[in-house]
Batch of 2 targets.
Target 1
Amino acid sequence: MSAHATLIALLHGPDQPGLVARVAGWIFERGGNILHADQHRDREAGIFFQRVEWEPAFAGPTMGEAAPRRPVDLLAAEKEFTEFARSSLGMQVRMLSSADRPKVAIFVSKADHCFHDLALRWKAGDFACDIVAVVGNHPDLAKAAEGYGLSFVHFPVTAETKGAVEAKQLALMRERGVELIVLARYMQVLSADFLEKFGAPVINIHHSFLPAFAGGRPYHQAHARGVKLIGATAHYATRDLDEGPIIHQDVARVTHRHGVEDLVRRGRDLEKSVLAQAVRWHLDGRVLVYGNKTVVFD
Amino acid sequence: MSAHATLIALLHGPDQPGLVARVAGWIFERGGNILHADQHRDREAGIFFQRVEWEPAFAGPTMGEAAPRRPVDLLAAEKEFTEFARSSLGMQVRMLSSADRPKVAIFVSKADHCFHDLALRWKAGDFACDIVAVVGNHPDLAKAAEGYGLSFVHFPVTAETKGAVEAKQLALMRERGVELIVLARYMQVLSADFLEKFGAPVINIHHSFLPAFAGGRPYHQAHARGVKLIGATAHYATRDLDEGPIIHQDVARVTHRHGVEDLVRRGRDLEKSVLAQAVRWHLDGRVLVYGNKTVVFD
Amino acid sequence: MSAHATLIALLHGPDQPGLVARVAGWIFERGGNILHADQHRDREAGIFFQRVEWEPAFAGPTMGEAAPRRPVDLLAAEKEFTEFARSSLGMQVRMLSSADRPKVAIFVSKADHCFHDLALRWKAGDFACDIVAVVGNHPDLAKAAEGYGLSFVHFPVTAETKGAVEAKQLALMRERGVELIVLARYMQVLSADFLEKFGAPVINIHHSFLPAFAGGRPYHQAHARGVKLIGATAHYATRDLDEGPIIHQDVARVTHRHGVEDLVRRGRDLEKSVLAQAVRWHLDGRVLVYGNKTVVFD
Amino acid sequence: MSAHATLIALLHGPDQPGLVARVAGWIFERGGNILHADQHRDREAGIFFQRVEWEPAFAGPTMGEAAPRRPVDLLAAEKEFTEFARSSLGMQVRMLSSADRPKVAIFVSKADHCFHDLALRWKAGDFACDIVAVVGNHPDLAKAAEGYGLSFVHFPVTAETKGAVEAKQLALMRERGVELIVLARYMQVLSADFLEKFGAPVINIHHSFLPAFAGGRPYHQAHARGVKLIGATAHYATRDLDEGPIIHQDVARVTHRHGVEDLVRRGRDLEKSVLAQAVRWHLDGRVLVYGNKTVVFD
């Protein structure tokens, strides 16, 4: 943790000599101090990826002023670096700051394990965000949400009302300025239309080791196939269900002694830890998406 | 390790009360001593599974003989128990003995890591078997096999000659009394006809976490999908490629930094350990196949 | 899950031929049906260990009665088996039943992660027990406990008052019939005197991979030594701090990037899952203690 | 893999603003291209660590020459960078090149699993080094070494001859230019005097999860304590036995079913993979030692 607010840039684009030096040089020349810089080259694709985090310089006090030193306008620095990365380096860039508190909505159905896990970690200070809404298609978790001081909104969904409900959900997201939706075992598929209109990331937890057992009832599928490990996968939701960029995966060993119910129970621990890790990495600006894959700077 | 030879029975069949007691009672009444007994009930399917290992009683020396005590005829005891399990308990049964040294053939192509691993473990005494043939469709591993004192047989295979070659391979298996074939990264698919005629188990190592990335070039598939874990799966070969009963699986973590070549290299360690563990469990009589699944009594 | 109540016996004692058969026979003769039986022989020590779970027979209705069939008195069956195991087999035995709901107290200090984890699993039905008291030496978790509908009792402890407080804690344990204490990051050492007088199991979670980093501030010790894995250990508390029989352990990978605070944060997940698993195994009658070790029939 | 030889620098020293930029700038100004740069700040200690790998510029052909372009003198570039890092940045620096083939000696006793594993990986091209000697205090592995085309040297050691033998070993190391010794289950402790005179790194594999079970017979210690995981630790040898900087560790799950012999057998797989990984990281210039810890840039 830095005492000062930092800027984080996630860059990617065509590889070319000197990129590391030019980024570092740009920051150094403006009095910034790089705290972390991590880069990756995809040799086959010729793409350069970088996550760089730095403390921008402090603007000194104006002559004669008694005012304390104050941080430079982070938005200005952000804008300036973005312009540099795009124009001079030809990079795509996404920026965030350690001072950010992005607004997050959690979507739930009836299962409560991922929700409690996220809420408790959030209360413990693990997630730098504000949870501005808990959206449920069932009312089951209303009381639990309120117990954490969170706003619960109930949107029942049926096949007939789905379009209309999504419109309302979207309105809520906009009204509350939501920048990230986390699907914490939300048992509805968000339409391609919703995703497009929302325009910000949606993280989903799938209860299998994708691409194995995509689709419904993965623990039943796993049990029927007789696998020796079950898994969970956190990924960004895309219009192609279960096909989005994978952020994190983990597995646990199972045996013939485990019935479907045991897989479900053991899977809950996986789902919790995999989803929480993915959300944390996302909020820390460690996940860069390109194509259908992610680069995770952990 | 027992000082005396043991019998191992793998039983399965319709569940009914008293099975554990009846098996234990039968052995006890004949003076046997149970060393291990492990059972499992599949409640949904109503099937009972058991692995039981015991020391049969010793037949005492005939009066007046100076002969040392000798173990009872294991084959007779085996036959007797099998008859009991089938007729009285209605169970399917497979039996083996700690005195067995099953004859094993290893099939290889060019990759040598699984072959060396199996051969070294075998030399270290980890596998209770005799390796009576190393069969290669390429000659690359001939020298390595001979270095371990193993008989290497080269059977080049082309699309045209495949049927004829399989007939020759089958003849060799019969001639040498092979009871288990281990496909140690053998890059040919054994035909359904071969498997049926061979009539004994064939263990294969697939270099992915099945059912994900079945088929060819699994590391390329895994890299393209951007998964965060790669896997390996040891299974019994069946007529449906990559669909046979899974014996063992394991995974290793990978990141965006790993290109396909890195996945291949890291995967080698997984393939070695997963295949070796599956072969060991099989030889120790710990794997019971039913339907398309396995019960592993580890 | 059986529809009927089951009995579970944990046996250990000197090995002798026929033990499996005699136990199974005894149960079978009384009309019981064995659901699980798992045994282990320690060859070096010559000790036999067994966990056996069975459905005792139903007592039929008395002639002329219209009364429904009712389960045999479980206590009677328990007493009878215990007598058999001790007298006839020379075994030590501990018995429990699937009908039991043991009374559990959770001891806490300020850290809440293990407490929330246990409480949520308990609410989800993972633990077959009643949590009859949450005891804190600090008041911090009072509200959280009450949120789960649990009785919180605050016992401040100082070096001077420790003896007197333990006496009060003990009185509370007796008053509420507590059969298991779980130390969920309770930052006080229970005295040998308390443990002896309590006379029932106490499960503790130590935040290191014991025996490495016993004693205080294990994450600081781990960081100073530069280990590449951190661990957590659940064990029964004994008079020798951190020396009791180990029930469960797990580890997580760390790197030079993790400062002490990161180890603490990552360690929380380990502590939660390791403690919860140990408590579950204990409640399911899967843990047999002998000497300073455990046999876990998982 | 780069088509061209790269330079790798491992730097550490007092943290100061602009270090990343200054290193990157220095390389860029001389026409080099950074392939990887990974840095770490130890906030508490105020130390900066960096691994940077780059392709130095090519010296163009002299006018009129038909000679192909040739790489700049790597030694010169290395010297120049070292001078810069020390004088201008106040850093300690260790340099190597992808063109290096360091000379390695493997020390063995009777156990052969780590030796075979290293030799096979080396033959498969996993290690960029030349194995110039296999030194055994027993003759058991002579034939195995020769089978790989390696020079085996037998130095029997007794308590009385140890000093004299170490002198001979040292002479051999010098004669053959050994830059790294790998102790592949070598059952002798190298004296502080030997380590000092040798003056280059020595990697040892200890068959426990250090600091647990330091000293002799760790599997016996682990079995006696009843731990649920066994481990292996690769570390640099220092004058304090089992206290050197840890490079890599891993663990495997064990149960009450595993006797000491089973721990030994399962431990072999851990020892192999942990030692091989440590050697590989060392050879790739990924391990930076400071104090009694390592920073591993993996």
Target 2
Amino acid sequence: MEQISKFKEMLMKQKAYGYVLNLAGWDSNTEAPRGAFARRAEMLGVISGELFELNTSEEYQEVVYGLFKKFNELDDITQREIKKAKKDLDKIIKIPKNEFVEYNKLINLSQLVWEDAKANNDFNAFKGNLEKIVAFTKKFVDYYKIDDHPYNVLLDGFEDGMSMKEYDEFFNTLKEDLVPFVKEVLNSGKVLNDAFITDFYPREKQKEFAEYLIDVLAFNRDNGLMKESVHPFTWNTHSTDVRFTTRYLEDFMFSSIFAAIHELGHATYEQQIDPKWDDTYLDGGTSMGIHESQSRFYENIIGRSLEFWEVHYPKLKEIFPEQLKNVSLDDFYRGVNKVEASFVRVEADELTYSLHIMIRYEIERMLFSDEVKVEDLPEIWNEKMVEYLGIEPSNDTEGVLQDVHWSVGMFGYFPTYALGSAYAAQFYYTMKKDLNIEEIVKANEIKTINNWLKEKIHQYGGSKTPKELLVEVTGEEFNPKYYIQLLKDKYGKLYL
Amino acid sequence: MEQISKFKEMLMKQKAYGYVLNLAGWDSNTEAPRGAFARRAEMLGVISGELFELNTSEEYQEVVYGLFKKFNELDDITQREIKKAKKDLDKIIKIPKNEFVEYNKLINLSQLVWEDAKANNDFNAFKGNLEKIVAFTKKFVDYYKIDDHPYNVLLDGFEDGMSMKEYDEFFNTLKEDLVPFVKEVLNSGKVLNDAFITDFYPREKQKEFAEYLIDVLAFNRDNGLMKESVHPFTWNTHSTDVRFTTRYLEDFMFSSIFAAIHELGHATYEQQIDPKWDDTYLDGGTSMGIHESQSRFYENIIGRSLEFWEVHYPKLKEIFPEQLKNVSLDDFYRGVNKVEASFVRVEADELTYSLHIMIRYEIERMLFSDEVKVEDLPEIWNEKMVEYLGIEPSNDTEGVLQDVHWSVGMFGYFPTYALGSAYAAQFYYTMKKDLNIEEIVKANEIKTINNWLKEKIHQYGGSKTPKELLVEVTGEEFNPKYYIQLLKDKYGKLYL
């Protein structure tokens, strides 16, 4: 008992450090001026160092390993906490503090370097930082002394229990079943009335519609907010402070709409987690894949459905009467689901999206198998774009430099995006058994869907693993057939 | 030497904790959703507690007191650092940690309570918190065991070397020389063409002009930003990240203009501090009074001058062509300097402003002399408003609840506002000897004024005391005659 309360006490301290670092991250990503970053890296380096001390202190090790030895005497929740805590501890204690601090400083600064490199289409300006980040990551994985392929260690870090074996299987299924279908769709010769997509939509007006969407999706404004950033994301520390961003491209309104709905999906998950997990090791969403399943569910399954736009297209037309004057609901719905080979992942359509992820997965897989070097990435990137999507980026800004992830050391994260999309489909076919989803969307009662997801998934926070959730909610293990079925049904009707 | 580097090392750690707490404060004041605050108080309570441990650790005491014993062997800068560090240490080590943490939680939450109370015109809803804050403050001052009146201890905390003796003298001079003059002005019967002041000025358009002012005042946008908040303020941690806020009242445009110029004054001070002080105990502006002298200098002496509006009024007219159609430059200038008895300090004109401060000073003086109770404040407030300004607030929102300061435990701060205004005048008459200020403002070359202030005041950060700065820059000690002279000259011409 004493050890448990000691564990809780130390955990609260760790959470407080994580909290302020998180808050600084939100600031860095949404408003901090450029001049802030050098000093910030110093200051946050100190705080990360302190957190590292807490996370690796002998006292903490004694408590966690001590409790792990008495595993069978612990209640179910404490067992889950200690299991997770031990898994993290096993890794972090292997890393020398000075390297940890140095790494954190590096990634704090690299995001800015990447932003500049992307703005100036200058991969070389970013290459040095990326090499350092990759080298650190490899060294850290090596320190862990886990008897597995380095990339498996990284993959498991973002999605409990996933390895190259499962992902290879998943992506191979996509290659076999989806890639030929995508080619069929791309070659269908279907002509859309879609000039409106790239019309001019003033920023402020887009913001007005994004604010409207917040209420449509029943987001709780007392416990969160929406802001703007270059790369949309959701930020959270606890269920009563959940924030997200979107971005406004004046010549591509869909960007703000679907980024907002996507992030609202993440945000709804976080807002609906039972606050009882806040003080435990099981707070927050359970994994990146499950998180992404929620954002994709709202973005694609709800947000790109005909029923959704039957209700909300009039509002959009009211905000943009000129731009949408000659655009029927059917045109708009087809525009929202327009399939095309494109360069930028975050703007990719629902159907080709996972091919963008496959490219990143394969590149990371090679990188951490020492089959390629950082300097080769631009070329490999472009080759794979040609292979899977039949198009070649004309510069690195729309190629290898497009994503923020690597600049902040997130390797092994990308595949959870495709996995999440597939989870979403599996959840969808289960939800259909309980709810008339189409009618609910048409009635603008999304709260009913939120409630279902809360009951089945959200409330549990990190207290169930992704695998447990899938089996408990859908009655079976992960099965990509639902994803392929959903895509073929929808896009077969639209294009073939 | 070893002790010095130990001191530096511990100082950096303290700075890092201060940094993240500061950042959280910025977030709390500019965007955090309401739901964030309960959890935030817990989390920041932990971090404040950790900082408290650092600030009071035996190791730190040994270093600071150890170095203080060798005071004469230290170089000038280290002497100044140790002197300041010891002064803070002497106080903080007297406070029990649990009380310190509890106090910090209390003030983190009280601001929200105050906001609600103000919004609902409900002093009773805030009274309990305020009583607790006052009780804590008294207890803390008592712990310090400084042989002085409690209010003197608080006053000195915000302005090194100031006590009731000096402030009484200052405010008595104002009472004798200024109050009769203010009455004369208020009774002059002068009629202004000032209906435009309360016309409707859309928020977005006001923001456009505030953005314009940022460039007029040569603020460095790479090292800072402007945002919006209920109570305008400047926030800073180091010269390359200086932020400030303004607020937009659509029926009172002057609020955003002069809040922006005022805060730009604070921000310019911070941006112009030599970064060499960042890693020392002498970072930031030297005192609240000197800080306020800079904001008041820009706001009143520059921002409310005829020359300033000769240059910038055309821009304002361009943004608000309808509202300012029939308003001449002379009308506008008189409007900007309109004197009236009003309720709200932050909107008060230059001439009556210090009377608002006097009221707060006298109330705090009584509160910390145990002559009044918190529950009596609304009544006393209203009585003093009648006494000095001849008007009585009709509710507590425009009375005792108007300022944020007490809700965050800042007692002894208010008088620095009046003191700063008087410092500003003293600096002004010195600057006039070197620069043709009127010509510079007319030529829109405010950078020249910034440079003068940088050279004489800003660059030194906290390395000189307010008294030193005054003597070195102006050649004499603080003398309120300049303030009175400036006000009488300006408002005599305008009204008498």
